[in-house]
Amino acid sequence: MVVFHCGSCGEALKKNQVDKHIASTCRRVPTLSCIDCGKDFTRDSYKEHTKCVSEQE
């Protein structure tokens, strides 16, 4: 499961929680970082991040 770190408030979010979080809590989140691989994503590009190399291990 892909989990992101909110660049605005620091909360850890499962991928299916991100849209709701952005809509209600952190509307101006600058980036979302994948907790597993450390890559940074924009509000829209995180949706393309489906799995990490570390998840397969």
Automatic annotation (TrEMBL):
InterPro entries tied to this protein: LYAR (IPR039999), Znf_C2H2_LYAR (IPR014898), Znf_C2H2_sf (IPR036236)
Keyword Nuclease: no
Protein's cellular compartments: Nucleus
Superkingdom: Eukaryota
GO terms (BP aspect): negative regulation of transcription by RNA polymerase II; rRNA processing
Annotated ranges, domain Zinc finger C2H2 LYAR-type: 32-57
Protein name stated in the entry: Zinc finger C2H2 LYAR-type domain-containing protein
Record field: transmembrane: none
PANTHER family: CELL GROWTH-REGULATING NUCLEOLAR PROTEIN, CELL GROWTH-REGULATING NUCLEOLAR PROTEIN LYAR
Major place of residence: nucleus
One Pfam family per UniProt: zf-LYAR
Positions in coiled-coil regions: none
Species whose genome carries this gene: Rotaria sordida
Keywords: Metal-binding, Nucleus, Repeat, Zinc, Zinc-finger
Any single GO CC term annotated in Swiss-Prot or TrEMBL for this entry: nucleolus
One GO molecular-function entry: DNA binding
